[in-house]
Structures are given as structure tokens and as C-alpha cells.
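Record 1 of the preview.
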Amino acid sequence: MRFALFDLDDTLPDGDCSALWNNWMVERGWVTSPGEFLARTQSMNAAYHAGRLRLEDYLALTLAPLAGREVDEVSKEVATFVSARIVPRLFPQGRELLARHQQQGDRLLLISASSRHLVGPVAEALGIDDVISVDLVSENGRFTGETRGELSYRAGKVARLNAWLAEQNMIASHVSFYSDSQNDLPLLSRVDRAITVNPDPVLAEVARVEGWPCLQWRGNKAAGFDQAANGYFTIVT
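->
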């Protein structure tokens, strides 16, 4: 089976879902000491983009406001958040690309280092059925603020993908992966076709050296379909 894998943040939407959700929680009054909370999350976001983030630390901070909240309550709030803050940010080129892969018979998979309570609803909005993300623990219908299993981050994405394929009893004949982040280099380096989308400077340089396609969906450049490129999108200036 052929698979098309997609990172989420800054790849399909223009922005980071977790960062936007952090602001949403502050606006809803779910966060104590919001100034300190936002300052710490912004510092950690900078560390992420520099390839230096310990995701465990970020999750401990950003999942704390969910601890003790009912899963249903959070789910309803996330649905409103996704509709208001994420769907308007989805790149139209990304939607077109997803549709193209579906037309080609590829199975879509969203694989993200963000948490499942956010990634799942965004995947649904995009029409993607399969998701690998950070799984959260709930007890008696309430979130505990803790995570479960291996984090889908850096090399963890490779491990989680392999485990998912084994659970599904599937063998991948060809895997494409789209991402913006240097943190995804462990998986990008292992797939059959790596494609960068709005890449950070480190990933852009690796893509240049490796000859990976680079899609820019911001600014004055756009992505278009090129039949000569085996059905993949290439930059059109």
C-alpha cells in the first residue's frame, strides 16, 4: 500500500495548533498566571524551532490546564477552537495536495508531535482518517494532564509509524512524507520520498543538499501540480 504522511503544524495550517490552543486556553480563563504561562510556552516554541526542545517539559506545562477537566468539555471547546482558529488557516494548496493523493489511491496519515485532542479534530476537518499523535491519559472521563506511550516526536515518529503499521498488519510499498521541521529529519530520511513544506532554515539546507522538493505556500510563491514530476507538487514562481 502507498502512504502519504503529513506533519501538521506549519505544514497543513499556517501556524502551530498547540501554540494557538495555548492562547485559546488563556482567553477562556483555563490558565493560572497567564503571563508566565505564555512566556514559558513562547520560549519553548523557540527551542522547538531550533531543534532543542524537550517535548516532555512542554507537555507538562501545556497539559496542566486540562488536568481534571472532563474529556467531553475539552472536546467541545476544541471543536469550537478548530473551527474558529485552525480551519481558516489551512493552506488551500494542502487541501489540493491531500485530494490529489486520495485520487491516486494513497492512504493518508497525519503524524504529529501535537496532542491527540487537537490533532484528531483537525484531521477530521481535513478528511484524514488515520492519525498518529501524542496520546493523553484520561481516568473516569477526565484528563489527568499526563501522556501515554512513546511520544511521536523526532525518532519517536519513526517508532510510532512502525508500530502503527504492525498493528494494522500493513506493509508500505511507498511512503511520502511532507514536513516543515528539522525535528522530522529522522522520518524524512527514512521514507521513499521526502518533501519539505515551508521548511525551517535547517531543513531547507538539508533539502537543498539531498535534492528534496521544497514547497513554499507562503509569500509570493505557490505550489502547482506538475505531471512531469510523477504527480507531485513543485514550486511555481
